[in-house]
């Protein structure tokens, strides 16, 4: 059954506001939840969200509230667009108000620090009376700054439940926002989270003027790392050839809108990590994700050399040039040796 009634979006950051705009353009009345009263007032009275998407006039179909109950009560669809660090807290606030019949979508790209859980795992743990099989993940190459201008964008919605994925597709799809479905929740979440690590590396590489060859190498070998860890965690390798894999990797490593790329290029200019994060003033998921992926690579015994070097640059003060020397000086390898298996033909077998 298509979703026809009220929709709620939590929270009113860049991506949440852009998703609310897509829903409003699709004729839905949207309640956008924010903990910030000034932001709520600005959205309701001036129809803008000046901190995250300046100079954009929002649809009058979008109304904001700082009451979780008001936002979520009787909503047929709830879209959670929180930073990964806030997901558990927000899920806890959502729990008493969420109807088991609502369609629940999350669009967050990251892991929970410490537990290393995927966002759908965190939601499933907190929302115990919600059928976690019906959870939908939204991901893919999509910068808020372009979606809000109605630039042609393609994304993917993943759910174990085909009907839930199709409901989400129907809810969000329009002439500038094309939505594909995919059953691979793990792959879509892992691809969306891990590309941010490589984007930080791409920003560093560009900031140090390492050139286009280096960036192409980072993207390609980065994708190999993403696919290796993702498949070890249970994802389908095909997902990484899609929108949540290579698609998102390309946009985040090349777009001027990418916060992760910008953070990497600021690090290359010599700013400290703390300084970079303060100056950005928006969530840079790649930093915590580098730590999580480094720990996951050890848990699953997966080789992730780019992630490992970036971890040392971010958290141990390693010089990025030395990190590149270590990457380039690794022993000779066959390009696909880590994914070689019995199905492969030829001399590698
Ligand atoms: N910006 C994009 O273009 C984009 C696109 C796709 C996916 N995403 C993903 O969406 C997620 C959110 O990113 P964003 O770009 O919207 O971030 P943002 O920095 O623009 O906004 C984050 C918002 O979350 C709020 N917040 C933080 N902690 C909170 C808490 N504990 N309770 C309530 N509110 C809290 C902040 O006040 C802020 O309004 C990230 O995982 C990001 O990777 C972003
Ligand atoms: O701006 P970034 O680097 O957080 O990336 C945002 C989106 O994930 C791009 O799809």
From TrEMBL:
Enzyme class at the top of the EC tree: oxidoreductase
Binding-site residues, sn-glycerol 3-phosphate: 109, 140, 142, 195, 248, 258-260
GO biological process entries: carbohydrate metabolic process; glycerol-3-phosphate biosynthetic process; glycerol-3-phosphate catabolic process; glycerophospholipid metabolic process; phospholipid biosynthetic process
Location(s) in or outside the cell: Cytoplasm
Residues holding NADPH: 14-15, 35, 109, 144, 259, 283, 285
InterPro entries xrefs: 6-PGluconate_DH-like_C_sf, 6PGD_dom2, G3P_DH_NAD-dep, G3P_DH_NAD-dep_C, G3P_DH_NAD-dep_N, NAD(P)-bd_dom_sf
Gene3D superfamilies: N-(1-d-carboxylethyl)-l-norvaline Dehydrogenase, domain 2 (1.10.1040.10), NAD(P)-binding Rossmann-like Domain (3.40.50.720)
Residues reported to bind substrate: 109, 259-260
Region Disordered, annotated ranges: 329-349
Record domain Glycerol-3-phosphate dehydrogenase NAD-dependent C-terminal: where: 184-325
EC number: 1.1.1.94
Protein name: Glycerol-3-phosphate dehydrogenase [NAD(P)+]
Record organism: Paenibacillus elgii
């Amino acid at each position: 059954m298509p979703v026809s009634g009220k929709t709620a979006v939590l929270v009113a950051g860049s991506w949440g506001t852009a998703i609310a705009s897509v829903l409003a353009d699709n004729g839905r009345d949207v309640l956008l939840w924010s903990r910030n009263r000034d932001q709520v007032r600005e959205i309701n009275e001036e129809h803008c969200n000046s901190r995250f998407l300046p100079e954009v006039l929002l649809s009058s179909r979008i109304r904001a509230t700082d009451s979780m109950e008001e936002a979520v009560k009787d909503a047929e669809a709830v879209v959670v667009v929180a930073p990964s660090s806030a997901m558990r807290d927000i899920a806890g606030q959502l729990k008493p108000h969420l109807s088991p019949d609502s369609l629940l979508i999350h669009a967050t790209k990251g892991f929970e620090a410490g537990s290393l859980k995927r966002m759908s795992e965190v939601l499933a743990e907190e929302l115990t009376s919600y059928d976690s099989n019906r959870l939908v993940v939204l991901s893919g190459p999509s910068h808020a700054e372009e979606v809000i201008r109605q630039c042609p964008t393609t994304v993917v919605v993943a759910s174990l439940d085909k009907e839930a994925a199709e409901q989400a597709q129907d809810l969000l799809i329009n002439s500038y926002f094309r939505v594909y479905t995919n059953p691979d929740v793990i792959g879509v979440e892992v691809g969306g989270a891990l590309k941010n690590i490589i984007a930080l590396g791409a920003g560093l590489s560009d900031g140090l003027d390492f050139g286009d060859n280096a960036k192409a190498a980072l993207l390609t070998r980065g994708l190999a790392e993403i696919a290796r860890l993702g498949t070890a965690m249970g994802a389908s390798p095909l997902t990484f050839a899609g929108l949540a894999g290579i698609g998102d990797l390309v946009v985040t490593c090349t777009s001027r809108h990418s916060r992760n790329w910008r953070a990497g290029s600021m690090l290359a200019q010599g700013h400290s990590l703390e300084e970079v994060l303060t100056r950005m003033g928006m969530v840079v998921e790649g930093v915590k994700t580098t730590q999580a992926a480094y720990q996951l690579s050890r848990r699953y015994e997966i080789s992730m050399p780019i992630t490992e070097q970036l971890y040392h640059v971010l958290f141990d003060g390693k010089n990025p040039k030395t990190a590149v020397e270590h990457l380039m000086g690794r022993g000779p390898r066959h390009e696909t040796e880590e994914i070689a298996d019995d199905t492969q033909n030829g001399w590698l077998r």
